[in-house]
Write a structure and sequence with these properties.
The chain is of the alpha+beta class. It has two domains: 220 residues, Uridine Diphospho-n-acetylenolpyruvylglucosamine Reductase, domain 3, CATH 3.30.465.10; 182 residues, Vanillyl-alcohol Oxidase, Chain A, domain 3 (3-Layer(aba) Sandwich), CATH 3.40.462. The protein has twelve helices and 17 strands. The longest helix is centred in the N-terminal third of the chain and has 13 residues. The protein is globular. The N terminus and C terminus are likely disordered. This is Berberine bridge enzyme-like 8.
Length: 406
């Protein structure tokens, strides 16, 4: 038996925004009154203001895009780190009374900053659910209650290596503990099916705060197989990638194929010192000999052999495909790991779109010309096959996904 894991180091997105618009008088008065309201709720030791020495470290603990860590970035008046549902209710109540916006942050898989910045100049408060991260597994019934602050090493994610076979985490959520804008605690029955559908990604994010999810567990074998093969333009990467588009949807559901396109320094025949590299990566729910035979029958152009394959546990494949093959599994429990890696890099913007028709070779050549421009260094372009039985992606079928990061 296994858990749904994400291909990144962070769990499925659990960001919900509760916004209240009320007349605002003096900011200083509101600030003081809000803190007094929280102190009367016996959670003062869980409240961090900008004067607190731990404020910055807590704020930046799960910020993975350095463009949101600038002196001009909007900062919350207060960060609350609840330990109990009553602390969340108290923060909602006090924010509503004093007209403050709320931003709710859980696992931290948020590249656009919506869980910790405000698009307006209105004062806001962050509820950081990092302390609410317990996982209670019911092996007999094959379910688990997972608090929203849990991260990869504690449970997993919802948009990951298993979704072609089992769908998204949203497809496997069977109940939730939810607090609405009035502070009421609701479950699936009491909230109704419309709201239950909406909090799983079907609508906007202003419904309330999810404290925990009841997840249906899925079965994963003891051994999976992973490979990663890179081809440059000089090794017919364009032709192989073009062909991949026409056969990748035929791969079995137990296979997660993906492609990453980047650039690397090299010396080519025409004197260029930069070339495009296309990396074909796959996680397969099975043994290496099965995967090699499958690829030889479906995609022989890649030239996969048993030497290219590595058998491992499923959780180890998370590290391998997350480009952390030499790290200890304990790294998955480190909520701050990606921060130390990304803060040192330039800020980035991620854009997703869906390719409904195969890209012709001339189209790829146009992409290559852009990637080879000096100002595009560090850019990546990703494809992931989206042939899935997910009810939430049923209209997307087997179309591809492109991400351009610059």
């Amino acid at each position: 038996m296994g858990f749904l894991h994400s291909s990144s180091l962070f769990p499925f997105l659990l960001v919900f925004i509760v916004s209240f618009s009320w007349p605002i008088t003096s900011s200083a008065d509101i600030y003081g009154d809000f803190l007094h309201c929280l102190s009367s709720s016996s959670i003062s030791n869980l409240v961090y203001t900008q004067m607190n020495s731990s404020y910055s470290s807590i704020l930046e603990s799960t910020i993975h895009n350095s463009r949101f860590i600038t002196p001009t970035s909007p900062k919350p008046w207060v960060i609350v780190t609840p330990l109990h549902v009553s602390h969340v209710q108290a923060t909602i109540r006090c924010s509503k009374i004093h007209g403050l916006q709320l931003r709710t942050r859980s696992g931290g898989h948020d590249f656009e900053g919506v869980s910790y910045i405000s698009e307006s100049e209105s004062p806001f408060v962050i509820i950081d659910l990092a302390n609410l991260r317990s996982v209670q597994v019911d092996v007999e019934n094959e379910v688990a209650w997972v608090q929203s602050g849990a991260i990869m090493g504690e449970f997993g994610g919802g948009y990951g290596l298993l979704f072609r076979k089992y769908g998204l985490a949203a497809d496997n959520v069977i109940d939730a503990e939810f607090i609405d804008a009035n502070g009421r605690i609701l479950n699936r029955k009491s909230m109704g099916e419309d709201l239950f559908w909406a909090i799983r990604g079907g609508g906007g994010g202003s419904f309330g705060i999810v404290l925990s999810w009841k997840i249906k567990l899925v079965h994963v074998g003891e051994t999976v197989t992973v490979f990663s093969i890179s081809k440059t333009l000089e090794q017919n990467a364009t032709q192989i990638l073009h062909r991949w588009q026409y056969i990748s949807y035929k791969f079995p559901d137990g296979m997660y194929p993906s492609i990453t396109i980047s650039t690397t320094n090299t010396t080519t025949q025409d004197g260029r010192n930069l070339t495009v590299v296309v990396t074909f990566s796959t996680m397969f729910l099975g043994r290496a000999n099965e995967l090699v035979l499958l690829m030889q029958n479906i995609f022989s152009e890649l030239g996969l052999t048993s030497k290219d394959c590595n058998e491992m546990s499923f959780v180890e494949s998370i590290l391998a495909l997350g480009l952390l093959p030499n790290q200890n599994l304990e790294i998955l429990l480190d909520r701050n790991y990606r921060v130390s890696f990304l803060v040192a890099t330039p800020s980035f913007k991620t854009k997703s779109d869906y390719v409904k028709k195969p890209i012709p070779e001339i189209g790829f050549q146009g992409i290559w010309s852009q990637l080879l421009e000096p100002e595009a260094r560090g850019a990546t372009f990703n494809f992931v096959v989206k042939w899935t039985n997910s009810r939430n992606l049923q209209s997307l079928s087997h179309i591809g996904r492109g991400i351009y990061t610059k």
